[in-house]
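FAQ

Q: What does a record look like?
A: Structure on top, sequence underneath. For example:
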């Protein structure tokens, strides 16, 4: 079976490599010359555990290829996946210009039947619009449109693809369903749930899933604020409610607010979609507002922990990416936090295991990037944990104390033992935990 993947970004590259691992012949089209050159050279332009090895194996096996020639890539394919960006537009709606441009190019290049599948996250109704456009551009050719949203978590994307909670396929075309059934046949063998539905339902399912998870994150963050006021422990609260099978334990971890490539963009897009449809979602609107306010308030929390001013103080920031095991800085909480600390006069020394290169593009120029945790901590007046990389969890409080000038720790991910930190002489500030 042969397919084409249009777009070599996070979704396209992971999906293309995983389909190739299924035994499918995948031609991946990447328009960016620098990214394409990196792929040809065997360099992976994104950080995702296991992806470099998976790509190399399938390139060597001849199942995965990269190129810029879309016409060549779609020759003889049964399906074309659209995995181009759908960034947030100036008005908050998803920008679909790249999707429509890619589909029109594909339509012009195809010479026979194929299923055009949106992997990109697109608003409800996009598939219908694409089908109408295809009929206008190629009335001579039988083509189907399907929606196959991705549910990949950065940092565990390969496992999510290979052993998914579910696969959602949106199309009422029996012919298109058969093509996609054959493509996903390896998942039938492990009994992965595959939901066959219509275009609109598949498109909305992706937005609804991300909005619901974002709502859980926002809820536990609000409970953390309440815990601080009443003397409760948010981790016990999270465990107490998460053990309820109707609620579940995942995404109940307090922190500085959610970021990344999906939650901020998708909750905002769903909010506008619902408003435009005349069925506004007040819950989603609140999630967007509360999360934005939370990220904006984190720097002030740090400033207050430092005695009300960070002017001239050296602050060690640990973790910059929006979550561990990725170099993604999109909408990361570190951006407003570090920006505001610099504006308040702090001297920020930051360390992230893989995110420094991307961070340099979005953080203030005066930020100093360190080679490791102890380099960042040395001489610092305070340590701030923003991203919960595993290597931070095992740090010795005694060694940190010896390296630092001050004794303030602001743990926005609650990765440290408060008792151990206070016994080491730190003024420890967690999130949603009782004060000492």
């Amino acid at each position: 079976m042969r397919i084409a993947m249009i777009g070599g970004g996070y979704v396209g590259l992971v999906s293309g490599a995983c389909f190739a691992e299924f035994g499918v012949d995948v031609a991946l089209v990447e328009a960016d010359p620098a990214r394409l050159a990196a792929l040809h050279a065997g360099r992976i332009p994104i950080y995702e555990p296991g992806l470099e090895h998976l790509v190399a194996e399938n390139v060597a096996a001849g199942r995965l290829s990269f190129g810029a020639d879309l016409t060549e890539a779609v020759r003889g394919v049964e399906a074309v996946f659209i995995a181009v960006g759908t960034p947030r537009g100036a008005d908050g709606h998803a920008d679909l210009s790249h999707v429509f441009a890619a589909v029109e190019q594909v339509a012009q290049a195809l010479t026979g039947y194929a299923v055009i599948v949106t992997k990109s996250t697109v608003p409800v109704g996009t598939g219908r619009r694409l089908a109408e456009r295809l009929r206008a551009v190629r009335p001579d050719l039988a083509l189907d449109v399907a929606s196959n949203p991705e549910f990949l978590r950065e940092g565990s994307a390969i496992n999510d693809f290979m052993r998914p909670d579910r696969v959602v396929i949106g199309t009422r075309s029996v012919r298109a369903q058969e093509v996609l059934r054959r493509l996903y046949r390896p998942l039938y063998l492990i009994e992965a749930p595959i939901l066959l539905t219509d275009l609109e339902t598949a498109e909305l399912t992706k937005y609804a899933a991300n909005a619901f998870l974002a709502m859980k994150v926002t809820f536990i963050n609000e409970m953390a604020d309440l815990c601080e006021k009443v003397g409760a422990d948010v981790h016990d609260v999270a465990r107490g409610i998460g053990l309820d099978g109707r609620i579940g334990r995942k995404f109940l971890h307090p922190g500085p607010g959610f970021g990344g490539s999906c939650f901020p963009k998708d909750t905002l897009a769903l909010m506008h979609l619902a408003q435009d449809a005349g069925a506004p979602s007040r819950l989603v609107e609140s999630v967007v507002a509360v999360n934005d306010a939370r990220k904006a308030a984190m720097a002030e929390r740090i400033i207050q922990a430092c005695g009300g001013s960070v002017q001239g103080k050296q602050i060690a920031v640990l973790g910059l990416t929006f979550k561990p095991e990725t170099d993604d800085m999109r909408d990361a909480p570190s951006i407003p936090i570090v920006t505001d600390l610099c504006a308040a006069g702090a001297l920020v020394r930051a360390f992230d295991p893989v995110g420094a290169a991307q961070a340099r593009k979005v953080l203030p120029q005066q930020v100093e990037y360190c080679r490791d945790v102890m380099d960042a901590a040395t001489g610092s007046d305070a340590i701030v944990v923003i991203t919960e990389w595993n290597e931070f969890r095992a740090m010795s409080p005694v060694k940190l104390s010896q390296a630092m000038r001050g004794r303030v720790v602001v743990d926005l991910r609650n990765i440290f033992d408060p008792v151990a930190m206070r016994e080491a002489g730190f003024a420890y500030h967690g999130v949603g935990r009782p004060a000492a």
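Q: Is there anything notable about this one?
A: The mean pLDDT is 95.
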